[in-house]
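Lab notebook: predicted structure, single chain.

Context: the supervisor wants predicted structures on file for every construct in the current expression panel, including those that have not yet been purified. This is the next one on the list. No modifications to the sequence; it matches the entry in the shared construct table.
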Amino acid sequence: MERRFKGKVVVVTGGCRGIGKATAEAFVQEGARVAVVDVDSRLGEETVKKLCRWGEAIFVKADVSSPVEVRAMVDRVVREWGRIDILVNNAAIYHQGDVLETSEEQWARVMSIDLTGVFLCTKYVVPVMIQSGGGVIVNVSSEAGLVGIKGQVAYNTAKAGVIGFTRSCAVDLANKGIRVNVVCPGTTDTPLVREALSRSPNPEEARRRLEECRPLGRLGRPEEIAQAILFLASPDVGYATGAILSVDGGYTAQ
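Prediction complete. Output recorded below exactly as produced.
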C-alpha cells in the first residue's frame, strides 16, 4: 500500500513525548522524513533512534520561544533534506492557576512557548515552503482554546490564540500554496497530563473527573490525536484550510 507521506519532510515540535512523539512515529511510518524538535536532548536521541527503525529521522534541539534557535533549527533541516513540506506546531507547556494565582512570569512563559513558539516556527518555515511551491501547517491547540476551563487562564488564552493565528495564516498564505489547519485535542493521556494530575491531592479522583465530564467517558490516546494531525496534513483534504478539528471525546459538543 502506498504510504501517504512518502518523501515528505516533516518538522514536529515538542516531538519527544505524548502527542508530538506519536505524531512523529505516525509520519515516519507513512514514509515521511521527520525532524523531531525538542529541548530534551536525551529523549530526543532516544525518540529518533526508535524512529530510524522505520525510516529517516533527525533530532534538532531548539527552544521554540527563541528566534535564534528556531532559525537555526530550520537551517539544519534544510541542510539535511533541502525542504520542509509539513510543519506540526505541537510544543507547549501547561500552567494551572486563575488570573489572581498566575504570576506575570508564569503568564509570559506560557505565552512564549504555546503561542509565540507557533508564530516563530511558522514565520521561519513559511519562506522555505514558498521556495518549494507550498506546504501544510498543522497547529495543535486544545479544547481549552474553544471553551473556558476553570483555573488555567494562561493556557486557555494561549490555546485560543493558536486558533486565531491559524485562521489568520490560512487566509494570508492560501495564495502561496500553504494550507494551515488546527487540531483541538481533548485531555489526552500524555506525560504532561499525568504530571498535572500527580500534583492533585487525589490524582485518581482527578483523573476520574476528567474522564466522566466527556461523553465518551475516557481520555484520549496520543495515537488518536496523531491520526487527526495526519488527516489535516494529507492531500485527501486538500480543500481544507483554516479548519478547526476537535478530537475531545465530545467535551466541547455539550
